[in-house]
Amino acid sequence: MSKPESNSFQQRIGLFDATMLVSGTMIGSGIFIVASDMARDVGSAGWLLGLWIVTGIMTLLGALSYAELASMMPRAGGQYVYLKEAYGPLWGFLYGWSAFLVIQCGSIAAVAVAFAKFLGVLIPKLGTGPDAALFTVTGLNWKVGLPLPWLREPLIIFERSEFMITAGQLVAVGIVVLLTLVNCRGVKEGKTIQNLFTVAKIGALLAMILVGVFVASKPEVAWNNWNGAWDFFSQSNPPGKGSRFLSIQALTGAPEFLVMLMVAGGAMVGSLFSADSWNNVTFSSAEVKNPARTVPRSLILGTLLVTTLYLLANLTYLMVLPVQGDEALAGMLKSIPSEDLTLAAQYPNPTQALGISQAKDDRVGTAVMQAASPKLGVPLMAIAIMVSTFGCVNGMVLLGARLYYAMAQDGLFFKQVGQLNRSGVPQAGLLCQAFWSILLIFSGTYSELLDYVIFVALLFYFMTVLGLFVLRFRLPKAERPYRVPGYPILPALYMVLCFLVMVDLLIVRPEFTWPGLIIVLTGVPVYGVWRIIGKPSKPGATG
Predict the structure, then answer these.
(1) N or C: at which end does the chain have fewer Cβ atoms within 10 angstroms?
(2) Has residue 9 been placed in a domain?
(3) 3-state class of 81 per DSSP?
(4) Residue 265 CB partners (closer than 8 Å, separation 6+)
(5) Which CATH number is 508's domain given?
(6) What is the percent of the chain where pLDDT is above 90?
């Protein structure tokens, strides 16, 4: 089990390349945006930073556990292979099915649209707003409800009142097509783009941190944030608890401190999504030089690098902007472009007044740069996020197709997807992935799908780390070039944290979790169909 499979994959990915794949697929647009929604939920510096710390700990613990599995099974497909070996082909297929429908293709669609959205900051007619609309249908009443016994009304999991095609969607399609074609030429081309854009985005994130700390920081803002680090949830400030606290309290009737923890767990959706996709490098294990050692090291180095950058970025936000902004002012300025400098006379420092929680369009990173330079902050941050999202899409495009290749090798996906082209890459898998991602871009459902990603991803992370225990028991003498330190305590701690967050999300974010579970379960009958009609591409492929 320790030897890489014999095929015509080209082992051209070194440690630096693999680390850039881990970091590049993790860093997209989320780190520049999600702190705003998190701040609206938890309301203070201590809770906000604490959630990012917990997210970082979870990510690092997960990476340590996956590193052992990667050293045992350095084969194309990564997590799919680990689940298949631990529990059988059904669990591997359910992961691959969910990745194709939601996790991978939905993320590709959403991040490509995020690129277009920030391009629209520079060129509005190429963005995703009304100015860029090419075709619009209004008056729709599409609504799908899910009845849950503890809710009075059905849970609305899909709703659409209009259908719009924008120039930004065409830009997003162009990004997906371009990067798919580049990656069809070979893994060397794909990794070159990944290295270039990951280094650039890390540089951009570091630049924002340095500008925030040395140019835009305000000691009085930082003092106020940390002086009241836990005030939002204190007994003395009940009106400040926010609508989510009150709704969860009304739903559960739980004690106040437990409600605080439940709200905080729900707010972690943002930070967990921003730190997701760290596992994708395992899909390409067959193309990594000395994969049994290189993949584990890249997982640890990449997640540690990104976790450090994310914590520094949030500390920077707290040095520049107050956590709680002026909600009334945010409503008043909602329709005015961020770059409209005519506000200066009436509001000398609107970014400070809006703070983290009310940052315009949730662009916290942009608000930091605006605080340093009102004229250049917006365009510079838009360019930085475009660089970041472009590299993120490339990494997900490159890596995702290797997962579908492994499924096809086992007769659980289209046969052609399990074949390599003359350049040694799964071209058919790349094209299938691009086709579905483009459909999601035009459907407009990518944002809903991304809401479901975190719960589904956590479910499979939990099952995969549990598989580490299963394989330690079933295969105690298997070759393991790397063993997770602190076993069984650290993997068990990761599972406990995952379980607590999942249970919490089932209660406080049902609109995210239950549709995700349904998507996973739809894979069961589909698996049955593939077992009947599919044939493994090689003897013993089903394992």
Answers:
(1) C
(2) no
(3) helix
(4) 500, 501, 504, 505, 508
(5) 1.20.1740.10
(6) 62
